[in-house]
Design a protein that fits this description.
By secondary structure, this protein is mainly β. The chain has no helices and 10 strands.
């Protein structure tokens, strides 16, 4: 048994026509940093399409790598959801497929430094997996629920990457 890892970049994200995070790139001192800027007071969502290569069974671990643009305290509420369709098997219309039950995670800024990288980990399990199988076409939705009472960071959250991991058996 081994762990499969997939990396999703902000540049690959898609958005609906409204309520989406802005894509941005900062030219850092030594390298560029690409990011999606999720607003502090609204719900904004971005989507990625992927194939869960060599997926065996079990939970998906979704690590959201983020930082506060200018804050040093507070909590960010993240939400992830997916939709899975098995080509040649599922008869579901790809344009009207629903997302499975969302999973939320609250991540607390560790303080001291703005732009400090953080990792929020969401475990997608049970019915939230949407009957995921190897070879499926999968849409992953990542949202910040900025208006939620638990989300107290009064600043944009910059998502720099997503790391998915799962078992191949």
């Amino acid at each position: 048994m081994s762990t499969v890892r997939q990396y999703l970049a902000p540049e690959e994200a898609q958005a609906l026509s409204s309520s989406f995070p802005a894509f941005d790139k900062v030219n850092g001192t030594n390298y560029p940093v690409s990011r999606l800027l999720y607003d502090a007071s609204a719900t904004e969502s971005a989507f990625w399409k992927l194939e869960p290569l060599a997926y065996g069974s079990g939970n998906l671990t979704c690590d959201l790598i983020w930082y506060a643009v200018n804050a040093t305290t507070g909590v960010v509420r993240w939400e992830v959801a997916l939709a899975a369709i098995t080509p040649e098997s599922d008869s579901q219309d790809a344009e009207t497929k629903s997302l499975a039950a969302a999973v939320t995670v609250d991540d607390t800024h560790l303080g001291t430094t703005s732009k400090r990288l953080h990792r929020a980990t969401a475990t997608i399990s049970g019915s939230s997996l949407d009957s995921l199988a190897a070879g499926d076409e999968v849409w992953l939705k990542v949202s910040r629920i900025g208006g939620h009472a638990n989300d107290t960071m009064a600043n944009d959250a910059a998502l720099t990457s997503i790391r998915l991991s799962y078992s191949d058996t």
